[in-house]
Every structure is written in C-alpha cells, then in structure tokens.
C-alpha cells in the first residue's frame, strides 16, 4: 500500500514502502478563461504568502510559486523528471510499445556519445562504418550501440538507425539478436519501405533467430502504414499458425498502423476484434482509440472510451490525457479540453509540452488567440520549454483570428530562440496572410521559403491557388497549376477541389465540368467537397433539376452529403415543394444533417 502524508512545507508526499524514494505531488496552475496581451512577459519577482496556519512563508521565486484558480498559494518542484529528462536504460535493451512515458531514456556513455556524433555527421556511410570498425567488439560496445539507437528512435532519425543496424548485420563481428532486427523493421516501416521491412524479417528467419511479438507487431504496422492490409492480415494468420495468439502489443501496433495510414474505420474494426478475441485492452489501446476518435471529429466517443478505460481499472497516463485534450482541441472545445487538463493535474501528472500544445490548439481553434498565448506563457512559466510545434500553433492562432502582425512576431520569436522554421512554420504564416488576401506578402513568404532551401509542398501551392482564385486572378492560378504539373508536385484532390470551386463560383461551368471529368484519369476520387462545389455552381443559377441530378450521382458514387451539401441544395430551391423534397431526401440519407435542415 501507498501512504499520502503531509510534508514539512505543506505539500503532499506519496510514500512507497517498497521503494527507496518518494514523489512530491504538486499541482500545476490551471487557466480558466484568462485572456491577456499575447506577447507580454512578466519580469522576475519575489513575494511572500501565508499558509493555512497563518505562518509567514519564505520568499519564493517566480519559477516555483504561483496562485491556483481558487486563490490558494502553491509551489511546484521544477526539477521533477518529465518526458524530456533522463533516466537510465543501460543493460535493459529496447522493447517496442514502451512509449518511454515515464521519462526513462538511455544515459549515453562517452563511447555512445561519439557514436551518436559520428552518425549525425553528414559524411559517407562507408566512412562511418570504418569508424565503427575501430571500436572493440565487447558487450559494453553492444550496449552503447543500442543506447544510441533508442535515442535516435526518439528523435525519429530512421536513416541513422538503419545505418547502425546494417553495420551490425553486414560488417561487424557481433551476432545480431531479435532486437536488432526489430529496430531495423521499425525504421523501414516508418520510412514506408515495407519491402525492406519484409526482407529484414526474412533475414531474421534465415539467421534462425526466433521472432517475438514485437517483430510481428512492427511488421504489421509497416504494412498498415503503407496501406497493405492484406499482408497485415497474413502476418496475423502466421502468428496463429505458430500458436502465438496476438497480444495487446500486436493489436496496438495494428491499430496504430491503421491510424497512421488514415484508415480509421478499419482501426475501429480491429479494436472490436480485439475485444471479441478476449484480449484485454491496455492503456496504450485506449489512448490509440482516443486518438482515432479525435482525428475523426468524435470527441464524445473519445470521452466514452476514457470512461470505459477507467471502469476497467486501466490507469490513464500522460499520453492518454493528451490524446483526450487533443480530441476536444480539434473541435475547438476549449472548456472541455481545459477540464481534462485539470483532471490530469489532479491525477498527479505533470503536463509536458505535448499537453500544453494540445491546450493551445483548443484555444486557437475556438478563436481565442490570446488564450493560446496565455497557455504559451504559462508553459514557459512552469519550466516547460516550448518546441517548434508550440510556436507554429501560436502563429496559427493569431492567423486564424486575422492578427497577421502578431503571427509574424511569433514567427520571428521562434527564429530568435534558435528554432529553425520548417515547411509547416512557413505554411501557417502563409495561411495567415492568405486569409486577408495579401498577395504581395504571401509571395514574399513563398520566396523566403525557397531561399531557405525548403521546397514548397502541395499544401503551400494549394494555398496560393486558393488565394489567386478568391481574388479572381485566374491567370496566376493557372501558372501555379502549370508549375505543379511540370515539377515533382502531386496535385491531390484538394487541388482540384479548389479549382472546381473557384471556376464554379466564377460561372465557368464548362471549365469546371472539364476538371471534374478529368479526375478519373488522374486516379483521384471526388470527395464530399468536390461534389458540393459542383452542386454549388448550379445552385447559384437556381438550376434545381441539375443540382438534384448531381446529388443522385454523388450518392451512387458512395459519397454521403454533409451540412455544406444540404445548404447548397436548399439554396437551389425556388419553391416550398422543392425545399420539402430536398429535406426529405437528405434526412433519409444522412441523419446527422437534421440539425442543419429546417424542421
């Protein structure tokens, strides 16, 4: 049993009889609708307070002293280990699915540090391998290599992991074990190189190395991310043929791979199969499920999964709470996101940068940029260092609210603290100026992007297409499309949705139909936005019969309407009979539209 006792300073201490340490449980301050100037900084100060016994408290510095939302004086331990701090993994190897949630990272020895520096240098792989050849073939060296591999995996430096594992396989005197093969399969899977992952698995079998559940989990995930669901199922069947019933680790990898491959419906089906097979879901399973529902825009289902998790005595971790905060954040439900954030603190978990970012995103999508800025300041105040994503969210928050100057100021702040802006960083700033139709500024950002050596992606060019189209600059829009066709850019369905919508709005019906008919040749499937944009073009001309015809084509193609479709169909109606007919048809097809359509 664990006892909670009061410490000398008024804090609560969790004492564990079987451990050689105790943990101080300190709450972090919670924000409740605080909106201040976005970029104001509070200078360091010292102050005095009184505890419940009216005794004077000693002076506290700002970084460990605050008032909570109830006005009570609190202090926190800023030295508390978080996910970014170090612990020891030496001699413990690597296991897929551990997640490293509890702040356990490998402490690198001097030799391991040299290996890490070596693989991160931009030199020829043969030169790096020659450096590895000079290292002694000892057990300590073996541990050093895998400590480095774990560190690289946390940084998602897959090429460096492949370099190390291939040296062990093809060059060194070490005999590779299943962990080495698993790391290599994982790295290839993350790079969508499923053929290489499959080849590594076959090498493992040829070397008479026995695969474990991690091996199967990683191989299934590699196939799922690449969209090869048939091969993933074949691995499942192979496990059963060997008398290995899939465990939670394998099911979790399957669901995770489907999530990364954006196959949300199949991911939910696998979860239901997991329950039918009598495999008990783990904390990671429920966390993945909350991510699934969050990305599908079903925050209520994510919350239902959380309650199911707690009812099964499965303890949530910081990733679980972050996933739930994210689910509400995507829908702009900042009050619910804040509520979960508060519950996490009450559970004794310290928010990390990912949790703060999720809460910032909630305020951003709800249209409260100053709320997002306040969370950003709170994160710094609590000793949690903002990362690149934090700045990107802040830039986006200002941009969504039309505060372009603040957005650019946050962008410049990111560069001042030594964080290099990426494609995403430039993209959110570009979107900020695009919303106001500032063509000159958007073109300037595009030039800066090229000057920094970053090649614009399809999303950036789509943003420029949309900007030129909104302003009626169709010649420039066609120029961007030509650049996409001649370059190595892949025009996606969003590209054609923009073109179809813009030409339809401008009344160029023939051009719009020409683009729509070309989708099949380009292996692009029209989505609900495509069909709605096409219907909208005829709706503006009050061509009710044509709108209804296209709507029927949409249903026959297996695409179901949304609220936007309902609105453009209703806009085409010129009589009460037509309105009633549209209402009845759509309600029959899509129950979710009842809140949009008139009763």
Largest β sheet strand count, sense and barrel closure: 3 strands, antiparallel
Cα gyration radius (Å): 28 Å
Shape: globular
Oligomeric form? single chain
Question: Describe it for me?
Answer:
By secondary structure, the chain is mostly helical. The protein is 59% helix and 4% strand. It has helices spanning 110-120, 125-133, 139-154, 158-170, 178-190, 194-206, 213-225, 229-241, 248-260, 264-276, 283-295, 299-311, 318-330, 334-346, 353-365, 369-381, 388-400, 404-416, 423-435, 439-451, 458-470, 474-486, 493-505, 509-518, 528-539, 544-556, 563-572, 576-589, and strands at residues 3-6, 12-15, 22-25, 46-47, 60-61, 65-67, 73-75. It has a three-stranded antiparallel sheet, with no helix packed on it. Strands 4-5 form a two-stranded antiparallel sheet. Strands 6-7 form a two-stranded antiparallel ribbon. Strand 2 and strand 3 (22-25) form a beta hairpin. The chain starts with a strand and ends in a 10-residue tail after the last helix. Mean pLDDT is 79; it is low at 1-69, 76-94, 97-103 and 592-599.
């Amino acid at each position: 049993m664990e006892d909670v006792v009061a410490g000398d300073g008024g804090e609560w201490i969790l004492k564990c009889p079987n451990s050689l340490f105790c943990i101080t449980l300190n709450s972090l301050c919670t924000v409740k609708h605080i909106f201040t100037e976005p970029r104001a900084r509070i200078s360091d100060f010292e102050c005095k307070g009184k505890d419940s016994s009216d005794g004077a408290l000693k002076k506290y510095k700002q970084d460990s002293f605050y008032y909570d939302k109830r006005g009570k004086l609190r202090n926190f331990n800023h030295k508390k280990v978080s996910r970014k701090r170090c612990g020891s993994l030496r001699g413990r190897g690597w296991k897929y699915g551990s997640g490293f949630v509890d702040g356990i990272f490998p402490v690198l020895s001097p030799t391991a540090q040299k290996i890490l520096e070596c693989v991160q240098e931009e030199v020829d792989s043969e030169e790096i391998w020659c450096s590895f050849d000079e290292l002694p073939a000892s057990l300590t060296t073996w541990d050093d290599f895998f400590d480095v591999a774990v560190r690289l995996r946390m940084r998602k430096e897959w090429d460096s992991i492949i370099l190390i594992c291939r040296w062990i396989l093809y060059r060194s005197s070490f005999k590779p074990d299943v962990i080495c093969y698993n790391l290599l399969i994982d790295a290839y899977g993350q790079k969508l190189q499923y053929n290489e992952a499959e080849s590594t698995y076959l090498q493992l079998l040829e070397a008479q190395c026995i695969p474990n559940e991690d091996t199967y989990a990683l191989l299934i995930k590699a196939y799922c991310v690449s969209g090869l669901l048939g091969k993933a199922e074949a691995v499942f069947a192979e496990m059963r043929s060997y008398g290995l019933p899939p465990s939670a680790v394998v099911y979790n990898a399957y669901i995770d791979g489907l999530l990364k491959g954006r196959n949300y419906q199949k991911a939910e089906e696998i979860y239901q199969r997991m329950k039918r097979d009598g495999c008990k879901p783990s904390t990671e399973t429920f966390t993945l499920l909350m991510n699934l529902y969050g990305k599908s825009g079903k925050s209520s289902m994510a919350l239902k999964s959380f309650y199911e998790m707690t009812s099964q005595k499965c303890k949530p971790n910081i990733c679980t709470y972050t996933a739930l905060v994210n689910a509400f954040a995507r829908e702009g439900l900042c009050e619910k996101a804040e509520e979960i954030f508060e519950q996490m603190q009450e559970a004794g978990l310290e928010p990390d940068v990912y949790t703060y970012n999720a809460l910032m995103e909630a305020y951003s999508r709800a249209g409260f940029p100053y709320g997002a800025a306040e969370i950003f300041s709170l994160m710094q105040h609590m000793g949690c260092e903002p990362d690149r994503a934090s700045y990107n969210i802040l830039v986006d928050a200002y941009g969504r609210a039309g505060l372009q100057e603040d957005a650019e100021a946050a962008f410049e702040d990111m560069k001042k603290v030594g964080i290099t802006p990426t494609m995403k960083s430039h993209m959110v700033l570009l979107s900020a100026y695009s919303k106001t139709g500032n063509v000159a500024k958007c073109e300037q950002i595009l030039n800066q992007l090229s000057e920094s050596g970053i090649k614009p992606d399809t999303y950036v060019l789509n943003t420029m297409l949309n900007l030129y189209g909104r302003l009626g600059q169709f010649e420039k829009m066609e120029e961007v499309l030509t650049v996409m066709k001649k370059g190595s850019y892949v025009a996606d369905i969003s590209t054609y949705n923009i073109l179809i919508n813009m030409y339809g709005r401008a009344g160029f019906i023939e051009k719009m139909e020409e683009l729509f008919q070309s989708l099949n040749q380009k292996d692009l499937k029209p989505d609900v936005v495509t069909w709605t944009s096409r219907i909208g073009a005829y709706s503006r001309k009050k061509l009710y019969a044509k709108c209804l015809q296209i709507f029927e084509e949409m249903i026959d193609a297996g695409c179901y309407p949304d609220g936007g479709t309902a609105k453009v169909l209703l806009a085409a109606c010129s009589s009460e009979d037509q309105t009633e007919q549209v209402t009845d048809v759509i309600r029959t097809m899509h129950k979710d539209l009842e809140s949009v359509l008139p009763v």
